[in-house]
Amino acid sequence: MSEFAASLSDVHKYYFLASETVKALRNVSFDVPKGDFLAIMGASGSGKSTLLNLLGCLDRPTHGTLKLDGEDVSRLSDNALSEIRARRIGFIFQAYNLIPQLTVLENIEVPLHYMGHITPEMRARCRILAEMVGLGDRLNHRSFQLSGGQQQRVGIARSLVNDPTFILADEPTGNLDTGTTQEILSLLKDFNRQGKTIIIVTHEPEVGKETKRIIRLRDGMLVSDQKTDASKDM
Fold first, then answer.
1. Distance (Å, rounded) from C-alpha 99 to C-alpha 142?
2. pLDDT tops 80 at residue 172
3. Angle between helices 120-132 and 104-114 (to 10 degrees)
4. Residue 81 main-chain phi, psi, to 5 deg
5. Residues near 141 by beta carbon (within 8 Å), at least 6 away in sequence
6. What is the pLDDT of residues 3-56, one digit of tens each?
7. What pLDDT score was predicted for residue 234?
8. Could you give the CA distance from residue 60 to residue 44 in angstroms, rounded to a whole number?
9. Would you say 50 and 25 are in contact if contact means Cβ atoms under 8 Å apart?
10. Nearest by Cα to 153 from 188, 125, 113
11. The pLDDT value given to residue 64
12. Could you tell me the strand order of the sheet in which 20-33 lies?
């Protein structure tokens, strides 16, 4: 097993639009050690979304190598990438992406359906995760009965249910007020202390400084990779 949850080497991503070539990422290289808590930051158009899509196995590099847990996923088929997304990556979304018709427990269970089956042990794990994010008394509630912070807690529990190699959080606090943002970040820190690797894509400096490390992109290039003051306390 690799010591890195993710590793990028000389990654480029180009989009070909008619006669124009858009160089969304250029010569990006960095490693994400297991147990890291990393923020990817940059202005609009810097390449954050493109990098998120690559790390989430929603797209492939044009050039270069992307490894997840030591496996080169750069040229895998769509079916193989889908399998990796289902089994090895946990996703947290800005808009929560809960299914309104389902209960809290059923929403947490959703990734298990993509794995093909739900055992009693898996369902028990979903209940445990609900307890861990403070929703043990809300298992039968639906999303419209929850606050934004509670909905994001469901999203966090859902991202952990398949015991992923890492969690990829896309602007996870973008729809939350300051107090709730701190609650969600505290929860993510708790899971990071338990050994989970977490990658946050954010434009919020206050969120970035709560992580262990910040990678900054500009015009598709990695311009800095620095530890934060918070890394000393985690």
1. 9
2. yes
3. 130
4. -65, -40
5. 103, 104
6. 999 999 999 999 988 889 999 999 999 999 999 999 999 998 899 999 999 999
7. 64
8. 21
9. yes
10. 188
11. 97
12. 20-33, 4-17, 63-68, 71-72
